[in-house]
Amino acid sequence: MMLPHLPDRFLALSESSAVNRTIALRVAAPASLLSFLVIAAPCAAQRTACVWETLTPSPQPRYEGPPVVIDGQMYMFGGFRNTAIQATTSVNAYDPVADSWSAKAPMPVAVTHIGAALDDRTVWVVGGFNGDDPGTATDRVWLYDVDLDQWGAGPSLPKLVAGGVAARFGRNLHYYGGVEADRNTMSSDHLVLDLDNPGGGWSTLAPLPQPRCHLAGTAFGGKLYAIGGQFNHDVNPVDQTLVQSYDPLTDAWTTVQPLPDPVSHHETGIFVLDGKIVVTGGKSFPIGFPTISDMTAYDPATNTWEALPAIPRRLFGVGAAAIDDYVYVTAGATSSLSASTQTLRRHKTDLYGEALRINSAGDVFTSPSSGLEWCDDFNYFAGEELSNVSIPDITGTDDDELYRTARTAPNGDPNLLVYRFTTNPGPYRLRMHFAEIDGAVPGARVFDIRIEGSIRESDLDVAQLVGQGAALVRQYDYYSNGGATLVCFERVNGRPMVNAIELIQLPDASFENYCSSGPNSTGSAAVMSHTGSSSIAANDLELVAAVVPADFGIFFYGADATSVPFGHGVRCVELPLFRLFPAVLANQGELRFQLDVTNPPQQAAIISAGSTWNFQAWFRDNPAGPPGFDTSDGLRITFVP
Fold first, then answer.
1. Residue 512: what pLDDT?
2. Thinking of the domain 28-46+355-505, which architecture would CATH place it in?
């Protein structure tokens, strides 16, 4: 995907260059909080993303240790165990039925960056780095006998290598990719071992087209896969979106749909579920995220990637597996190398159709008024916590607890607070909640909001708009091309902050009516509709407003929505407005306008693929005296290529 614009400071944290505050779109504040909340209801009921069930934690903290599912249990092998990057020999198995862990025979040596594959009752552990970091690459292959709970040696690799993929296909064990003994040279070797004749040793097959390490891989559907990974290891590692499939029948690699974003260190978080290959967590450089919480699924049948609900922590080297109808996640490390013992699960039917709600700097929270569940805070980059539990009442909301905490930009770099969310291609709604809870006066905290590289609001001053201890809600619709959505709060004065964020995937349709207007002199309300499509390439969209008086009218549009009294109706489009005329007054009380996206009324009103605009009709009408005009409802349109 094309990465959105980010300030240089975000890409290189040591830099302190000023934030690029070029205003792509200036959005005026709603006339009142009450009028804004009228249109802020979700389009449809959606389950929340906070449905991960907490299970018995692992007795061994670890990261970069692979899981292998055996007899319905998840075995975890080796890996690192602490912030000192020390390796462990431990092997532990999780039993989902008993919700308990058991210790198994430890590995012969402490090893990390291993490939692991199951053949019947034997686990093959291939290559890796021996010992604590920085370990030395090994050619050793170890065999774990499940029934005897004991270890033995297998045929060594023909080279020293770590961080590659081990995958069984039929009666062959494959090993491909990795980093060589100098810890920085990438390996393209693709090795294979006949499991029915292991004494014959390893032979070579078609090499990996782009050599890399820390890639994820698996055998599925008659092919092998190499997913993501990084170029280089110790020096200047760069994560990749590369994905290839290997056909054993033709001994050939084929490039398939790349990952939405570059990912590495996700090799222990790969599993197959319902015909899709799922990868979990990892790192995503060079876009500035040392750890991510993504869970992303590849469908070989359609050659497409799909974002699933994130795991509730940003982790790399996380262990993930599918057992029966559940997905299990355990282990992993934070960006500070703190090893996790947390074990979670989620039913596979809860992996789709989710809305994500984040209680910034707060805990999991269930709204007593709406019943909606908010996740505890994650997916922010840096940032510090702000709280004031002594505020007895937050004006303008029943969810006071939601507004008593906030995430702010860190003291060390007060210019920027960033959240990262993973999305699928399509229309989304970001709803943000603010309240001043630390006594900031008007002018003391002013910031811009940038979504997907475009400034959606400039000079937001919560204290100026609603005062202290009062809720303010802002809503922005946008079109995602898939992959990471970056939401940046950029300093104008003071440290930017946010109390809560909602990310809601809108219906696939590009058109949505909102903000109803009342009856006009015809006795009915005017309603917006359309003919044609929202495709920029087709450029065939015609706006229609039905049930209007037979007189004169126009259409107008703007970037954001509101709901304020306007004539005998309601203005549903926030300032600034862009007029479209002349409209055609058709038979039976219809206004029509053929939109030409190549000819905007002003430069600021350019309609492009991925943009969302709000349209409304205005018409002469005098049902009960001045001011003599009325309006239709609003029509929100998300334009696609």
1. 85
2. Sandwich (2.60)
